[in-house]
Amino acid sequence: MSSRHYVDRLFDPDPQKVLQGVIDMKNAVIGNNKQKANLIVLGAVPRLLYLLQQESSSTELKTECAVVLGSLAMGTENNVKSLLDCHIIPALLQGLLSPDLKFIEACLRCLRTVFTSPVTPEELLYTDATVIPHLMALLSRSRYTQEYICQIFSHCCKGPDHQTILFNHGAVQNIAHLLTSLSYKVRMQALKCFSVLAFENPQVSMTLVNVLVDGELLPQIFVKMLQRDKPIEMQLTSAKCLTYMCRAGAIRTDDNCIVLKTLPCLVRMCSKERLLEERVEGAETLAYLIEPDVELQRIASITDHLIAMLADYFKYPSSVSAITDIKRLDHDLKHAHELRQAAFKLYASLGANDEDIRKKIIETENMMDRIVTGLSESSVKVRLAAVRCLHSLSRSVQQLRTSFQDHAVWKPLMKVLQNAPDEILVVASSMLCNLLLEFSPSKEPILESGAVELLCGLTQSENPALRVNGIWALMNMAFQAEQKIKADILRSLSTEQLFRLLSDSDLNVLMKTLGLLRNLLSTRPHIDKIMSTHGKQIMQAVTLILEGEHNIEVKEQTLCILANIADGTTAKELIMTNDDILQKIKYYMGHSHVKLQLAAMFCISNLIWNEEEGSQERQDKLRDMGIVDILHKLSQSPDSNLCDKAKTALQQYLA
Amino acid sequence: MKTGEFLFLLFEDVPILISDIFYDWRRQTERRTGRELAAGPSERARGTPQLLPSAPCASSRSPAAPPHVRVRRVPERPWPGSRASAGLDYSRLDAELRLGFEEPYRGEVGRRQQKEVKWEEIRPHGGRRRWPVRGRRRRLGRAPQRRELRASAGERLAGPGEAPPRAQHRPPRAPPAPPGLAAGPCPAGGAPAPALAASSSAAAPFPHGDSALNEQEKELQRRLKRLYPAVDEQETPLPRSWSPKDKFSYIGLSQNNLRVHYKGHGKTPKDAASVRATHPIPAACGIYYFEVKIVSKGRDGYMGIGLSAQGVNMNRLPGWDKHSYGYHGDDGHSFCSSGTGQPYGPTFTTGDVIGCCVNLINNTCFYTKNGHSLGIAFTDLPPNLYPTVGLQTPGEVVDANFGQHPFVFDIEDYMREWRTKIQAQIDRFPIGDREGEWQTMIQKMVSSYLVHHGYCATAEAFARSTDQTVLEELASIKNRQRIQKLVLAGRMGEAIETTQQLYPSLLERNPNLLFTLKVRQFIEMVNGTDSEVRCLGGRSPKSQDSYPVSPRPFSSPSMSPSHGMNIHNLAPGKGSTAHYSGFESCSNGVISNKAHQSYCHSKHQSSNLNVPELNSINMSRSQQVNNFTSNDVDMETDHYSNGVGETSSNGFLNGSSKHDHEMEDCDTEMGLQLDAFSLLAYSDPWNSPVGNQLDPIQREPVCSALNSAILETHNLPKQPPLALAMGQATQCLGLMARSGIGSCAFATVEDYLH
């Protein structure tokens, strides 16, 4: 029979014949994508939807229509798109109001298929506010409604808004008891629901911890689902639930169900025996779980040779698969990127805090080479993960000086920084901060490849994280740098930008900018040179900050800048001639905070230092201001450091 | 293994037949579980040690003397556990029991209830044999026997030498370990280990009394049983402590040989010292696990935890020598039979708990630290390794946990994974390449089973619906069925008569069988059920009908499976895999070689090869086996009887000679007869210590013996192939255990008999 014929029969005046036509159509389209496409082209969908919605249609006919539509949705993405174009979703949702269970199930099955397709916007589920409560009510109807509804929820719950909607309609209570359902599919879909509900959602997570099902707390049920004889899918999903609940703060990281159950389970998911998809998910979830906790990182690093196990993630596609099995090669290729980025992510989490773990990671065979290769991969995901991994590892002084240098990591990194999306830039620039540390051998080559302009560009970014990283890197760069570099920085940055940064809303940016200033103003010739050109502006800025409402650290940093200025030969005069500043220094010497007293003390010491030219006049002037009395007072200070400084300063007067 | 499931799948259309079969299987399983539940109370009931047989005491339950056949009463012994499993209708039961005064024959319900009683009544054999007829004393002698058995299984390592004072009460004829035993138990796969045999035989016979069985040991017992249900501890005891004999002199032991400390100089690696556990790890564990807690790392923390074979130098740390494997605390390296280690895991020190898990399925080993698995350390491990620790500097102290305490690592979860894996492997095992072959085979098995037990109508219907031919003629099946019905109804006289009519020369050629039948007849006379005394009792024909004509499926006369099971159930240390050990020729430890030749099918050839070995192994068991056998009177029909080993000198007779054959027979028959006669010594034989003979369930072995004998004359197999297959599977598992194939741990036959 031709496709045309099937469609024609839908228009038969005899309802019985229409029904038979739909049933025949159902049998014809099952598993036949070509037939499905033909029928869609011939306009079967609108007619089926019409029959489905028609009051006069029998329930049986309606049900069969829903079944055929579900079958069509099972086909290609294009099929789903065509169905969506015919507004299938409202029609099916309307069908859920029917009293007939069979029809409801058929509608739900079709909805499930449509919603699980990547082309369907999940928002369609939330447009009508009555839909969610109705679905919640349908949860009690049968195991099929349970399965399909849970599946719809778990696919359509994207982001905190959806989580909140579902949560407010009692999703937790309604779905919790499905975890003990006799049907594996229902249990599984319910579990998946919880994993999407709990993700980064403290409210849901906190609720889940205390939910009782058959006298058992939900975390205990999840732990049971982690048991090694359970299907892998179930183990993995319940490990995700527990991970998300833990990251949302609902379960402590030292809880046994995390340390002894979830973590080992996720490590197992990374093993060679698992499917590639499972290994990817396992590694990503584990990376997420251990990210903030060094103790979990330590445990994971010793569990089942995880670090060596991850090295296998880079062996796809294997050389064997290329020759022997095209299908396998295809499969491997598809997952190769995912595997690599998951491994990098997990390495990044593992090496985030512990030096020994970093060492172990870098000692893994060809690790640095792999990371360096990863930096220049086409996939953004892999590049990002590789940069994150490298960033974790760059926190180690030893590695910076050895492996990073050996593998010229800076080269691909600088490339990554060109025209990269923000998310990569954030990580890459913060890694650059580490590479620009004074003891890093990469500093020179990075400077030569035009890092200054790049970083100065970052400080103008909209993204505060990028601004911080940019200025931070500049600060590191300026530390004990040559005059030329400092001049370069000042020139590229421009004083206007510098002052803009000093009034930045982000405290971190302010701190690092002050740090940059301080680093720029070190060693006498540099101080004099810079102050001679920018002295006025800098003094203004310092006054501004000391007068402003800032916290202790900012003020301390500013006083330190003053102290540095006071160390210059000609720059001293900028302070000595500014009574306002001198008064401020005096004020901070008597401040209640020791740190500020100490910083002010540095200023004074530098100003009255004997061996320098004109010290006598400065000492006299300061004596007149009553500084000596304060020094005497401070020499009695309980803080030994302060006391010593005061005494040394007094000695300068005596000499 | 899949038979059960397949049957269900294939024959949904004949549910009755199948449920019949499964009813029988289930009953066997239930009986076992029922008994286990019952064991507790019955044990306690006879808690107080009994006195010497020669010194009769005034027992509270003084057995009234006058033998009076006619006094009948249905013994009322509640068995909560077994009742529940048997699913009895209590109201009906009570009614029948009340009726029981008038009606000598008890219907199905009554019978089954009594069946459970049997488990309580099983007791060692020897005592009675020694003092026949004097029933009153026999009963006294029994309890300690039983206790001893249980104890020797449960507390074999309780500590050699300290025989509890109670030991002197034991009947003199039962030295727990006959001298010949020591050479016996050697694991199949490995070289004989004299030290092991010596230590196990030394440890086993001197158990502590109940008082010394402290909480820890009980917990240890419980945990080991749960972790390693497939291990037969009679054959392959589990490690429970460090061996005071198998250690270097620099090692000191304390706290029940669980704590190890170093007492040498600790100057050089030459001062290293190790200690092994008392026993090697049995393969039937499947997965084995122990933990060691570092109490103190001492001076340098040079501690090694691992495994080593018997005979490896103890003046070394584990891992340095051939067949020695260790994980060292100072550097975290693993040592695989080599002086140089490989980077393996983290270091460990004071306060850490290090676990060592041996996977006997793929012969690998991994360690755990504080409950975290560290990954595979060794592969291709040899069999029969001992848990081992080594220390090297002063102050190092470690504590072992062989199951005394809960483990830090969740080993049961790991075991679950492997159980699932093995079972999936079994489920997915490819069967029959050609279409329908497998199904035909299954159908044949079912059909032959039905025919064997004489379910003739069912067999006929089944054969018709599955297009099969029944080998035996219908009339013949019906005849057998008739005789079986008679035996099971206790109408022995009629049964004998019918047999003689239908199979004239059968009983003449089989005097032993005839004797057994006669003894049973005598018992039934006491019972009041035999046809010749029918008038006395007024047998109810109705109740006869209610007896289901379903002899227990796997009982074969010579094999007496039920006492195979009894043994296992009464000796807590024994694994459950061997439950059906009775089914196959070589399974019973006390079978003589002649028995083998007489009916071993070609199928059994593989097992045949192992006969000498099996026999030698089983010799060690024979003591216990024999302790039970004569109690099961009716089972003694077999001419390769078990009932010989009650004196220690007889222990080795079993394995070898057929000369003793006749003597055995006489012996057995004597025992049978005496047991039966001793019924007369009680006014209330049902409540007497020998009263279990009256239990209708005791008819079953007689029945199947007779059935098998008849089938043999027709040149038909003595056992249905289904039972053979089951027995073979069970045996195969036992053989796997002995050959070091660990997967047997997760494939018990019972798992497939739902």
UniProtKB/TrEMBL annotation, chain A:
<comment type="subunit">
    <text>Identified in the CTLH complex that contains GID4, RANBP9 and/or RANBP10, MKLN1, MAEA, RMND5A (or alternatively its paralog RMND5B), GID8, ARMC8, WDR26 and YPEL5. Within this complex, MAEA, RMND5A (or alternatively its paralog RMND5B), GID8, WDR26, and RANBP9 and/or RANBP10 form the catalytic core, while GID4, MKLN1, ARMC8 and YPEL5 have ancillary roles.</text>
</comment>
<dbReference type="Pfam" id="PF00514">
    <property type="entry name" value="Arm"/>
</dbReference>
<dbReference type="InterPro" id="IPR011989">
    <property type="entry name" value="ARM-like"/>
</dbReference>
<comment type="function">
    <text>Component of the CTLH E3 ubiquitin-protein ligase complex that selectively accepts ubiquitin from UBE2H and mediates ubiquitination and subsequent proteasomal degradation of the transcription factor HBP1.</text>
</comment>
<protein>
    <recommendedName>
        <fullName>Armadillo repeat-containing protein 8</fullName>
    </recommendedName>
</protein>
<feature type="repeat" description="ARM">
    <location>
        <begin position="43"/>
        <end position="79"/>
    </location>
</feature>
<dbReference type="InterPro" id="IPR016024">
    <property type="entry name" value="ARM-type_fold"/>
</dbReference>
<dbReference type="GO" id="GO:0043161">
    <property type="term" value="P:proteasome-mediated ubiquitin-dependent protein catabolic process"/>
</dbReference>
<keyword id="KW-0539">Nucleus</keyword>
<dbReference type="InterPro" id="IPR038739">
    <property type="entry name" value="ARMC8/Vid28"/>
</dbReference>
<dbReference type="InterPro" id="IPR000225">
    <property type="entry name" value="Armadillo"/>
</dbReference>
<dbReference type="GO" id="GO:0034657">
    <property type="term" value="C:GID complex"/>
</dbReference>
<keyword id="KW-0677">Repeat</keyword>
<dbReference type="GO" id="GO:0005737">
    <property type="term" value="C:cytoplasm"/>
</dbReference>
<keyword id="KW-0963">Cytoplasm</keyword>
<dbReference type="GO" id="GO:0005634">
    <property type="term" value="C:nucleus"/>
</dbReference>
